[in-house]
Amino acid sequence: MIEFDVRQEEGGTVVAPRGRLTMVSARAFRETVTEVVERDGGVVVVDMSGTTFVDSSGLGALVACLKTARQAGGDLRLAAPTEQVTMVLGLTNLDRVLRPRATVDEALHG
Amino acid sequence: MAETARRELEADVRPESLDAVHDLLEDWWTEVGEVPVRTRFGFETAVVEIAGNVVEHTRRLDGAPGRRFHLTLTADDRTLLARFEDNGLPVQVDLGTVSMASVEDEDGRGLALALAALDRLEHSVVDGKNVWELECGRG
What we know:
The complex is a heterodimer of chains A (110) and B (139).
Chain A: E1 2-9, E2 12-21, H1 26-40, E3 43-47, E4 51-54, H2 56-71, E5 75-79, H3 83-91, H4 95-98, H5 104-109
Parallel strand pairs in A: 2-3, 2-4, 3-5
Antiparallel strand pairs in A: 1-2
Helix pairs in contact in A: 1-2
Chain B: E1 5-12, H1 17-32, H2 37-61, E2 68-75, E3 79-86, H3 110-117, E4 120-126, E5 129-137
Antiparallel strand pairs in B: 1-2, 2-3, 3-5, 4-5
């Protein structure tokens, strides 16, 4: 199961997936971020501190969301990934394009 | 530890069954005992990727109702093992050609992730069933 908390902060919109971002939840995540991009534009920070697990479908959704945000003139940044998420970002080299920041604050203003 | 930690699951081939696979893994780890974090997350990632692959292949090939898979997890003092059997149509898999997708791609990372995390990954067709075997040293 997964839940998405969405909140406005100075500097951007924070989307926090809580639970597992997998084949089961990847589509809902994409839809949530797409709505945020269409409504708010600007910077979207994905707060991964409560995301316990990401699989290849979840990674694909993050790449798609990055493209969506950039096409709208904004950006998508990851913050505070958990250990499993850091591992798969490294194995897939996606840490180079998604460049996770240590904290949400750093991602909003970095 | 001579005895093994063992768990089994039989489930429908559909995306929601991935949650059942996760729950089974969590329960299994409590009995497996100490394993380095990277080994644990790597093995867990590989098991979930192969479960996702079973779901994807079945959906792409026929999507017929009644498709099921069986997962067995076993651990002894040296090795972590997972075995999937599914009753979907036999698939052709050439693991020798698998490579990691580029950072621009939105798919094509599942098998590469599994291979990166495991010491052994094999797919075969036994009695008309797809069989996946995943193995990893406890590290």
